[in-house]
Amino acid sequence: MAAIGSAQYAASILSADFCRLGEQVEEAMEEGITRIHVDVMDGRFVPNLSMGPDVVRVLQPFKNKYEVQINVHLMITDPDRYITDFLCAGADEIIVHIEACQHLFQTVRNIRLHGARAGVALNPATSLNMLEEIVEEVDGVLIMSVEPGFGGQDFIRTSLDKIARLRRMLYGRHLDHVEISVDGGVHLSIVTDLVKAGAQTLVSGSEIFNSRASVNENIQALFAALKVS
Ligand code: DX5
Ligand code: ZN
């Protein structure tokens, strides 16, 4: 089952074994994952480098076989430079950091103009107040629950309250269609609390792709945690 209740998982391939990327992604989709999360890092906005549009391009054949969306999380300065490249490569959603955009309305409108979903991400120390003017223009808000840049970090507990406050803000403004995602440190033990707080998409990297167990075993455990939420 792809989504239980109103929550689902997005598999972040940052922690995948890149020698077996296609195989691991397919295993995740066979197990019911409907979103693949691609983390793009530029070594400036975050202190790490990762992948570019070619990775989104190689994932395209899976979209013919599975009902999967590709979400691109741009952890880069001045993301406008690369949005068209990622859209042409087949991204279904582009998520930009609110801290990285000079002209956010223009950026968000440009993404939507091309028929893709537009999301905005907030770093852990960025206040929800930053959403005040833009929230009506977006399809989703991604709450970073670790400092962006690396997989496998510990979940920042204050993110739970931030998600709950965002849920109330969206409800109060009749913006229930705006999806709340959470990214970073999403481990089995926190899933129930995240869903209760109002998170709808749980981005998970190292809990899915690790050497402890197989991808399908890890995903089964995550879905089991959703069922008790
Ligand atoms: C961190 C990335 C995350 C990361 C999550 O900067 O945005 O998507 O891959 O990895 P885990 O689930 O291991 O925290
Ligand atoms: Zn991410």
Task: Looking at this protein, list some descriptive labels.
single chain; 229 residues; alpha/beta; TIM Barrel; 8-stranded parallel beta barrel; globular; binds D-xylitol-5-phosphate; binds zinc ion
Question: Care to describe what's here?
Answer:
The chain has seven helices and nine strands, in the order ββαβαβαβαββαβαβα. With 229 residues, the protein is an alpha/beta fold. The chain has one domain: Aldolase class I (TIM Barrel, Alpha-Beta Barrel), CATH 3.20.20. Strands 2-3-4-5-6-7-8-9 form an eight-stranded parallel barrel, surrounded by seven helices. Strand 7 (140-144), helix 5 and strand 8 form a beta-alpha-beta unit. The two termini are 15 Å apart. The structure holds D-xylitol-5-phosphate and zinc ion. Residues 12, 37, 39, 73, 183, 203 line the site of zinc ion (ZN).
Brief summary:
This protein is of the alpha/beta class.
Shape: globular
Helix tally equals: 7
Gap between N and C termini, in Å? 15 Å
Strand proportion: 15-25%
How many strand segments? 9
Kindly report the name of the CATH homologous superfamily.
Aldolase class I
Task: Work out the helicity level.
Answer: 25-40%
Order of strands in the sheet with the most strands? 2-3-4-5-6-7-8-9
CATH third-level topology: TIM Barrel
Heterogens: D-xylitol-5-phosphate, zinc ion
Q: Give Rg in angstroms.
A: 16 Å
The helix-and-strand class reads alpha/beta
CATH class: Alpha Beta
Mean pLDDT: 96
